[in-house]
Amino acid sequence: MELTREQLMIQKMAREFARKDLAPQAAERDQKHEYPAESLKKMGELGLLGMLVPEEYGGEDMDTVSYALAMSEVAYACASTAVIMSVHNSICCGSLLRFGSEEQKQQYLVPMARGEFIASFALSEPEAGSDPASMSTTAEKDGDFYVLNGTKRWITGGATSELFIVLAKTDPDADHKGISAFLITRDLQGFSTGRLEDKMGQCASDTTDLLFSDCRVPADRMLGKEGEGFIVAMSGLDDGRIGIAALSLGLGQAALDEAVNYSKQRVQFGRPIADNQGLRWMVADMATDVEAARLLVLNAAAKKDKKEKCSKEASMAKLHASEMANRVTGQALQIHGGYGYTREFPVERFYRDARVLTIYEGTSQIQKIVIANEVLGDKKK
Ligand code: CAA
């Protein structure tokens, strides 16, 4: 796929920012579990936090292909920063754009698109991960308010974001049709951040529970119509999965580049290890894997840019790219030998950061359900 001049310019801008600003700090932030607040501020100034939002709402009005290219560049340098960027741009800005009222867009989307604050998405619960329709958080109508009760889990940015799109059951007796979406801010009484997860990777991005205890939410904070929340979530995840696929691509490319550099420098048996055919075949497999992911990511993004339904393409891109990132970071670590198992080289972080990619925003198994249902045209669980 040939990129346009504008797409190449955005890629270059994101690459320069990511390699100069993000990459040098990524290892330390990972070790200190430090949120990239300053970098996100700069990303807001560069337009990287409202990429898909029209200019009238403070965004950059870029296409999804440009967004995917920029996402890969950010992930190449720091996967933790990239996941914050993905959830904010794809799911949160996207959902406000699709389902928000004009007032909600002015109040929330405009500052989000300018990067003045970061937003998060709260769908999962302790007992409802792959099956979000079985959620138990409730939102009971009380006059001009909804009263929220329940716990959300695995929320990227739970301790740091300022706005949350929260899904809750307005009709606990209905299945997915009883779910509604709400815009929740930190000032609401009865809303708090719960336990912070002690994660294996992507440690500079916090993941927490969100707790709701008789939290009174003004009725005009509902995003979309009552009962429309599941559709808000699913269409948001179509976009989100393109973001995570692009993130996976960037991480895989970073691991491949590290492996290539190392294999040319590391001398064993009197010659660089890159001279060994066993290793050359590994590099060939890795590069092919990365390239296939790139094509799937760009294909899904291009389909979305044509305003066509892209659930299948997004899931294919997410499935392949996230599995690829796990394979390629593992192979890159193997090529580094014992050094790869230490924090002296970035592949150790890449390997840990890759692991969650086949889990969040729908596991690989969930992506296969979506793909198979679309291909066979006979929905099954
Ligand atoms: N776009 C719009 N609507 C959609 C849709 C889509 N992509 N997918 C489904 N729908 C609609 C269906 O048309 C259907 O509508 P009707 O009732 O009007 O017919 C409705 O939603 C229900 O669809 P299904 O019956 O297919 O729903 P299901 O309960 O069988 O679930 C599923 C399908 C694919 C398994 C879905 O539950 C799913 O994606 N599960 C995984 C959840 C997930 O990805 N969680 C990630 C958490 S977010 C996260 O990780 C973010 C982070 O912080 C990093």
UniProtKB/TrEMBL annotation:
InterPro entries: Acyl-CoA_DH_CS, Acyl-CoA_Oxase/DH_mid-dom, Acyl-CoA_Oxase/DH_mid-dom_sf, AcylCo_DH-like_C, AcylCo_DH/oxidase_C, AcylCoA_DH/ox_N, AcylCoA_DH/ox_N_sf, AcylCoA_DH/oxidase_NM_dom_sf
EC number(s) reported in the record: 1.3.8.10
Top-level class of the enzyme under EC nomenclature: oxidoreductase
Pfam families registered for this protein in UniProt: Acyl-CoA_dh_1, Acyl-CoA_dh_M, Acyl-CoA_dh_N
Keywords: FAD, Flavoprotein, Oxidoreductase
Domain Acyl-CoA oxidase/dehydrogenase middle: residue ranges: 120-215
Full protein name: Cyclohex-1-ene-1-carbonyl-CoA dehydrogenase
